[in-house]
Amino acid sequence: MRLVIVTGMSGAGKSSALKMLEDAGYFCVDNLPIQLIYKFVQITFSGNEKFDKVALGIDIRSGQALEELGGILKEITKDGYHYEILYLDASDEVLVKRYKETRRIHPLSGGGRVEQGIGTERKKLEFIKKKADVIIDTSQLLTRELKSQIDKIYTLNEKYSNFYITILSFGFKYGIPMDSDLVFDVRFLPNPFYDARLKHQTGNDSPVRDFVLKAPQAAEFLDKLYDMLNFLIPNYIIEGKNQLVISIGCTGGKHRSVTLANELYSRLKSLKYGLKVEHRDIEKDARR
């Protein structure tokens, strides 16, 4: 039997993850009292009921009883039961924004500020995050992207890395993305904008892609960038970083940056990290 404990920050997507696991055939129980967890594990592993896959939601709503969880997990392990911990996280800025959009009250903020409740919650959940087998940062994830990650790990049983990479194309004329970790300027490449046949196409179109990649500098840039990322990413992971935003910019964010972001995405697939590509400015200045 597979037992997954789903936990994490309020607003990071725990409820959504539980629904996704339920859709995948897991028997799901949310917010079970901490004192009943050990008995629940005994029952589900006993064989009296047919439970092949079980997901148990635990979070800050357990109150002071949450402090007992560490000891209970030790007992579960000691008695030979196996479990996995899935921890959902997101940046403070994203969590605050989600709470403001939904007008919900953070369970630890009371009548105070949401930021204070989030800070207190992080401290209280720190011990269980350290025990987590899988940490998914949902700050940059769409619901369908979270579902894809859940399916890969808990349905298809693919190996998962707690490191997630976003490759983002953009136009310098619209500003550098604020959440960038690494920024690369590809305005040194020939610009398809000045070719009348290509001006109104984008890097997602084959003629533009072929034009950009025809320049020998493009292939050399991609080779050097891939080598650098191959060195950087393992060292970021060692230092505890769990996500990386790689921004690639050209003038308008439609041609060169889109092409190279797509090519980098294709190359990084082989590294088996969580990965997605976005084109922030591709629709701007579109011909009416």
Features:
288 residues, alpha/beta, Rossmann fold, four-stranded parallel beta sheet, 9 helices, elongated
Q: Report the strand count.
A: 9
Strand content: 15-25%
- What is the count of helical runs? 9
The total domain count is 2
Give the helices and strands as they follow along the chain: EHEHEHEHHEHEEHHEHE
Give the C-level CATH assignment of the largest domain.
Alpha Beta
Q: At the third CATH level, what is the topology name of the largest domain?
A: Rossmann fold
Secondary structural class: alpha/beta
CATH architecture verdict of the largest domain = 3-Layer(aba) Sandwich
Largest beta-sheet details: 5 strands, parallel
By CATH, the superfamily of the largest domain comes out as P-loop containing nucleotide triphosphate hydrolases
Distance from N terminus to C terminus (CA atoms, Å) equals 57 Å
Protein name: UPF0042 nucleotide-binding protein
Keywords: ATP-binding, GTP-binding, Nucleotide-binding
Pfam family, one: RapZ-like_N
GO molecular function: ATP binding; GTP binding
Give a description of the structure:
This is UPF0042 nucleotide-binding protein. The chain has about 290 residues and is an alpha/beta fold. It folds into two domains: about 1-155, Rossmann fold, CATH 3.40.50; about 165-280, no CATH class. It is about 40% helix and about 20% strand. The protein contains nine helices and nine strands. It has helices at about 15-25, 35-45, 70-80, 90-100, 115-130, 145-155, 205-215, 215-240, 255-270, and strands at about 1-10, 25-30, 55, 85-90, 135, 165-170, 180-185, 245-250, 275-280. The strands form two sheets. Strands 2-3-1-4-5 form a five-stranded parallel beta sheet, sandwiched between helices. A four-stranded parallel beta sheet has the order 7-8-6-9, with helices on one face. Helix 1 (about 15-25) packs across helix 6 (about 145-155) and helix 4 (about 90-100) crosses helix 5. The longest helix is centred in the C-terminal third of the chain and has 23 residues, at about 215-240. The protein is elongated and about 70 Å long. The N and C termini lie far apart (about 55 Å).
